[in-house]
């Protein structure tokens, strides 16, 4: 079974930084797309960033420049470095073994992992 463990969230002030980690088991994360999603209360689950097997990356417009997704094959772990965080980015962050509409309908329900809470205060 595919299982993902997210960690690294916490409480920071606006402008602060965090590095989220997602460790995979049950599959090899560098063989497929990996995505970071987030869901704030009352909002839809949204794709924030992704990385492909050939290290191509995608970032949502709202996070361009401030976020960096990376991967450590030896640890089967994907990271998301977040800088200059904003209060509106307070959310539960999830990683997923892929991207797309089907993935988005499952990931923020904790289908693969429980997510990690990020709280940004003003």
Describe the structure.
This protein is mostly beta strands and 122 residues long. The protein has one helix at 101-107; strands at residues 3-7, 10-13, 18-25, 34-39, 46-51, 57-59, 67-72, 77-82, 91-96, 116-121. A six-stranded mixed sheet has the order 2-10-9-4-5-6. Strands 1-3-8-7 form a four-stranded antiparallel sheet, with no helix packed on it. The longest helix has 7 residues, at 101-107. The protein starts with a strand and ends with a strand. The model has no long low-confidence stretch (mean pLDDT 94).
Secondary structure layout:
Blueprint: E1 3-7, E2 10-13, E3 18-25, E4 34-39, E5 46-51, E6 57-59, E7 67-72, E8 77-82, E9 91-96, H1 101-107, E10 116-121
